[in-house]
Amino acid sequence: MTERRDKIPEYDFKNIESKWQERWNEQRLFEAPAHPGDAEKFYLLVMFAYPSGDMHIGHFRNYIIGDAVARQQMMMGKQVLHPYGWDAFGLPAERAAISRNIHPAVWTKQNISVSGNTLKKTGVSFDWSREVASCDPEYYKFTQWMFIELFKKGLAYRQRGFVNWCPEDKTVLANEQVVDGRCERCGTGVEKKEQVQWYFKITDYANRLVDDLDDLPGWPDNVKTMQREWIGRSYGLEVDFTIEETSEKLPIFTTRPDTIFGVTFMAIAPESELIERLGMDPEHAAQVEAYKKEVAGRSDIDRASITDDKDGVFTGKYAINPYNGERVQLWVADYVLSGYGTGAVMAVPAHDTRDFAFARKYDIPIRVVIHPDSETVLDAQTMSEAFTEYGPMVNSGQFDGKSGKAATDAVSDFAENKDFGRRRINFKLKDWSISRQRYWGCPIPIIHCATCGEVPVPFEDLPVELPDVEDYHPKGRSPLSDVDSYMNTTCPKCGGEAQRDPDTMDTFVCSSWYYLRYLDPLNENEPFDRDKANAWLPIDLYIGGVTHATGHLIYFRFFHKFLYDIGWINSKEPATRLFNHGMVSDSNGEVMSKSKGNVVSPMELFEEHGVDVSRLAMFFAAPSDRPVGWDTKEFVTGPEKFVYGRLYPMVENYRSSDVDLKQYFKSDELTSDERKVYIKLNQTIKRVSESFERLQFNTAISSLMELTRDFDAVEIQNDHLNDAVILKTIQLIAPLAPHLAEEMWQLCGFDEDSVFKSKWPEYDPKAVIGDVIKVAIQVNGRLRGTVEVPVGSEKAPVEEAAKENEKVRAHLDGKEIVKVIYVPGRLLNFVVKG
RNA sequence: GCGAGAGUGGCGGAAUUGGUAGACGCGCUGGAUUUAGGAUCCAGUUCCGUAAGGAGUGGGGGUUCAAAUCCCCCCUUUCGCACCA
Fold first, then answer.
1. Chain A residues 611 to 630 with C-beta below 7 Å from nucleic strand B
2. Is the CB of A810 under 7 A from strand B?
3. C-alpha span between A141 and A138 (Å, rounded)
4. Domain A772-833 is in which class?
5. Domain limits, chain A
6. Strand B contacted by A269 CB (< 7 A)
7. Nearest nucleotide, C1' to the C-alpha of A821?
8. Does the bond joining A538 to the residue before it have cis omega, within 30 degrees of 0?
9. Does the nearest atom of strand B lie within 7 Å of A307's Cβ?
10. Would the Cβ of A236 be found within 7 angstroms of any atom in strand B?
11. What is the average per-residue pLDDT within A113-134?
């Protein structure tokens, strides 16, 4: 090995990496044209990142996965678009800046530069000419444009309502940003607060967001399931009950109309305005008031944890069931959510778990109206839990005997005919709250005028620039509201004195359309040119973490559909294939964090082992969708030996035979060793190509290791074959170890053209199976030996050969052969008796 | 609690989707080289057994000539949802 290394220049990764990075840059190898042209297009997108201090090893993994795909697609002849940018507005940047006492703008800019440098050092094939940062006025000008377009269509509206308030960050959070009742960012318990907020009416798109998931076969099922559940569509019936004395209607939503004769009480949410209009007597009114106060003091965390213990208070009032005219008690109960359905429920203790618990606690009657089947009879007195399945209706007058869908339909039809009810679809998904009372975000482009109301800023005046303020600290109201020069303006409509909206937008708004801006990043007049955008859309592969399943990935589909509706793009879904990469943790499976001191920086890795060895090590550690517990020594050793001991030294063996890479070799022109290597080569091409389709680069690398090992083990006389193996190996490894491959490619004499301009190898279909094949011989399903037979052998000769085998014979002796099963090219199984 | 996924050597992980389980790599053992260490190379490495042979893909059952792979029950684990009427 040492003698070999003397002949070729040592692999000096530092110089070689920067050499090729410079060259790619000069040649603009990764810059995509405005239109893909005649070649098939491939839009590869990795989720852009928030620019924190520096790149994490998890980012490193994410980007090299995309990079490998991009480079291979390029070699497959596609016109690839692989852009990158920065999700630069938002709370984390602002909080970090505050703790360092640096202005968020300065801090963000610094970090974009630091992270950008690290990224450039990894040699990822991003088209940097399309780089965007969501905090640039040229970018957020069009975030504001998006807002106004939504506003014009009535899909952006302002409303007073209960919001999730994080007392630590002093801002409102979207439902998606509240996890287990806590702020996703800082972990503080979220409070309910009433406030005027801007909302995007994403619920208008709820049906399509669910239905169109069926048109996304390239999305992982778990993400689609999560989105379906998050949107939470349910079909049911809205029925108007009536409040006894006031005759006010009390609509409720139910998915179980077939249980409506079992209603024994009603419950309304403590937040419901209806409570005030009930006309309760003073005693009950006081109890209800006390209960409301108590509930208001409960945090979301408490509410979530008391799932078993339901409580509530009786109002002293009654409601009438329109089906049977019965009067039932009306309660106020915490377990009724004000934000879902009508904020009131009909309670059927016999057939609903929650109602059952409540009824038992407060001694409310339980009435059975569904039986499991016609034989089994339930007894309300002795039931230990609610029966929540479908079955024939009983005690339900004219509906008795009907069950399941027929029952639901009959009961629903009845209500619709009598006009006291209607079929309805309800969603768990709520409108997207986007106002943030923070400084570092995209200003909301609305002017509040006393006479004209909410007036959008005219396009000519966009962007509404975020003013440079002294004090950007959060104080519970937007810091912008204290900046008079910003707030005071004139109404674009009437010219009178008016005020700007003081809030900024949730960063998820900024990240909902960035993939479109990449398609025309310098356009000053439009968010993007329609032709350019449609030429590249949809995204062919979108790579990112599962964490965004119910947040970003729903918002971004919503935006895409909206833009489709208003005629800006002609695809209904933004991305045809989604890939979730696995996370990187430390070797104990723990998240890397500065406080634990277990952070592995990609830069350290590059310094010590070079970018390409680091890449190979990461790829080799696990398939891309699985988590990796990173251990530098364990993971790097193998790939490093492979590169220095086997792969790179191949170049020294190159014979400059001027081989045509399209040439296939015929059996009779090769020795048997050569034939073996040729077959191995083609099997490897096949396996590596398949590995790329599944993004399973670990198996790609292992087959390349096998190929180089087998190649080293034999003497190759045929110069063309020798060189073909070397060149194709370089091509196959190129997307995974790009600098190394370029260097080797050049050492083999390809001075002019990048290996990425060469054509991805195709395998010789006649050479993926050897001429001779090993067939396993089993007796009663257990392996007793193997025989070598020519490819395509019939059963009889294989059976003959098998019987020659001593061990096999030993197991056949004295037994009766009942059956012989032959799987051509695989195995032969004797089934024996006795 | 509900839903989805996963469980294969000491470790990361393979297995053409029902057909020779453990590819490839790490680690380990022995040997070669070396003043020594490191590095490198060769051989071995699922477990029990000197061997013949047997057992073996979380556990138990089943289908099949043949199961890591398909079916049923259970255990463990990861993730998501968690009063959605």
1. 620-623, 626-629
2. yes
3. 5
4. alpha beta
5. 143-201+433-508, 234-426, 772-833
6. yes
7. B65
8. yes
9. yes
10. yes
11. 94
Cα gap A72→A597, rounded to integer Å = 36
CA distances from A251 to A65, A241, A317, A320, A818 (A): 53, 6, 16, 11, 74
Report chain A's mean pLDDT, rounded to a whole number.
91
pLDDT-derived band at A66 (thresholds 50, 70, 90) equals: very high
CATH of domain A143-201+433-508: 3.40.50.620
| CATH superfamily assigned to domain A234-426 | Valyl/Leucyl/Isoleucyl-tRNA synthetase, editing domain (3.90.740.10)
Alpha carbon A19 to its chain's center: 36
Axis-axis angle for helices A672-694, A719-733 (nearest 10): 20
| Of the candidates A264, A451, A446, A242, the residue with the CA atom closest to the CA atom of residue A351 | A264
> Looking at residue A5, what is its pLDDT?
36
pLDDT score for A308: 67
Would you say the C-beta of A228 is within 7 Å of strand B?
no
- Is it true that A143-201+433-508 and A772-833 share their CATH fold? no
* pLDDT value of residue A812: 82
CA A152/CA A137 separation, integer angstroms: 22
What percentage of chain A reaches a pLDDT higher than 70?
98
Which whole-number Å values give the CA distances from A352 to A69, A241, A341, A582, A756, in the listed order? 51, 19, 17, 40, 63
A window 156-175: Cβ near strand B (< 7 A): none
Q: Which residue from A475, A409, A403, A408 is spatially nearest to A439, judged by alpha carbons?
A: A475
Query: Mean pLDDT throughout A21-44?
Result: 95
| Average of per-residue pLDDT across A607-629 | 93
CB of A645 within 7 Å of some strand B atom: yes
The predicted pLDDT at position A24 comes to: 96
Taking the CA of residue A671 and the C1' sugar atom of nucleotide B31, their distance in angstroms comes to: 33
Closest residue to B23 measured CA to C1′: A702
